[in-house]
Design brief:
Strand 10, helix 9 and strand 11 form a beta-alpha-beta unit. The strands form six sheets. A seven-stranded mixed sheet has the order 14-15-16-13-12-18-19, sandwiched between helices. It has a five-stranded parallel sheet with strand order 9-8-7-10-11, sandwiched between helices. The protein has a three-stranded antiparallel sheet with strand order 5-6-21. The chain is built from 15 helices and 21 strands. The chain is globular. The protein is of the alpha/beta class. It has two domains: about 250 residues, Aldehyde Dehydrogenase, Chain A, domain 1, CATH 3.40.605; about 180 residues, Aldehyde Dehydrogenase, Chain A, domain 2, CATH 3.40.309. The termini are far apart. Bound molecules: NADP nicotinamide-adenine-dinucleotide phosphate. The site of NADP nicotinamide-adenine-dinucleotide phosphate (NAP) has 31 residues, from helix 8 and helix 9.
Length: about 500
Amino acid sequence: MTALTLETDVLKNFIDGKWVDVNNTTAVTNPANGERIVQVPLSDQSHVEEAVQAAIKAQKEWALVPAPQRAEVLYRVGMIMKDKKERLSRLLTMENGKVLEEARGEVQEGIDMAFYMAGEGRRLFGQTTPAELKDKFAMSQRVPVGVVGIITPWNFPIAIATWKSFPAIVAGNAVVWKPATETPIMAYELAKIFEEAGLPSGVINVVFGKGSEVGDSMVQHKDIRVISFTGSNDTGRNIASDCGKQLKKVSLEMGGKNAVIVMDDADLDLAVEGILWSAFGTSGQRCTACSRVIVHHKVKKTLEERLLAAMDHLTIGNGLEDGIKVGPIINEAGLNKIKKYIEVGKQEGATLLAGGTEWETNNPGYYFTPTLFTDAKPDMRIAQEEIFGPVVSLIEVSSFEEAIEVNNQVTFGLSSSIFTKDVNRVFKAQRDLDTGIVYVNAGTTGAEIHLPFGGTKGTGNGHRDSGVQALDVFTEWKAIYVDYSGKLQRAQIDTEE
Ligand code: NAP
């Protein structure tokens, strides 16, 4: 199946509209069974240089193409993605491990983003505004930044790439994109789709390779004017610091420590469904995954019982097989990190109610059993640090106010959720939860692409992916004044008393 679907055994960079061989490569393996899928290039600084030069050249022309015409390419990209949805979804499950149903959802997110951003080609609104002086016109306009660098993680290898590249392209920029080395196939496929859709050469360039080499070269490159990064906090902080020194614009979307709050009046069956989906979907490897449940003491016992009963039905295995709910962990390092946190949780005194071990299988993939800790305290490491696996910790509280406080007591601020039937609590919660995304009577995952995606505090640096807000990352604002009085009018000085 692999050779058939990929049509190649060795991926190539996509630079200036051409497929470019790279001598040095490494194997990409399927996390569900350890099988080698393909070889991915390990490019170096010289490949980044080629890509940037191609992008500089292409961007000059692309910026002059009227935005509605630029948008037509995205529209075609969306149509091709729609045609290829099943193939893309299966390849995504093969390289990333998430179950097929979720892979289809991720590809759909990319399709939605294509049509949404194609619509922006006829908007890209600026503002007209009155001028202070007679016979003078004033307006603001979005203009492209130039060459933008996109660095993406393995956990949403196609959706996040579309959140970043589509707004960048419709706004008239050219892109150099470094996908995660673990999951290069979606990047290869998306580059082929751009090619088929007729995007001019050099407007998107894909350079495969390690973050420490390719990613860092992009961050340091003086002609890349924006870096849009999604990934871990450690990497993001270093990138921000390097970009800061160069006064380079940088957008960061990083980790989360997201909580579901379950109040005493909640529909508990619904809460269980929400927790299961957001804690164990994608094996907990989502930035928005629920990894804390903050539960009112009156319903704690019942919630524990119902969660445990429901967790029994979570079938683990290869995400391409029917009925599987929890797929593999991305790699051995990810698995080891989860195992470490299980020990930390036990040592800290939390009670392990379920899971806590690798899934016993002869399969060489990396699997971990859905895990439930209870009696966790808000300041424990398992309740503060991102685990990135199917591990959730219950924290008991006595009031709504305490629940909000506990939710906000982490350094991250990505997503939160509350289950309650009390409308007053709903409105207070959406005001007081210090996260970029808030759900009411739903789990912590499930973003829609036309709303801003991102978080407060340590999750980011104030920018947002997707939504119309994504355009702020990839455009500069230009203020334009047209004086048609025929004389020199000085602002703030020549105003009539
Ligand atoms: P990561 O290790 O930081 O890697 C992310 C990307 O950065 C990869 O492409 C990586 O390249 C690259 N990179 C690594 N070192 C670099 C460097 N020195 N300079 C430039 N680029 C570098 O993160 P990950 O483990 O792939 O992703 C998981 C993290 O992403 C989690 O913390 C998760 O919460 C976060 N995430 C956040 C969001 C959000 O929107 N808030 C969404 C999804 C994921 P390699 O391919 O070489 O590793």
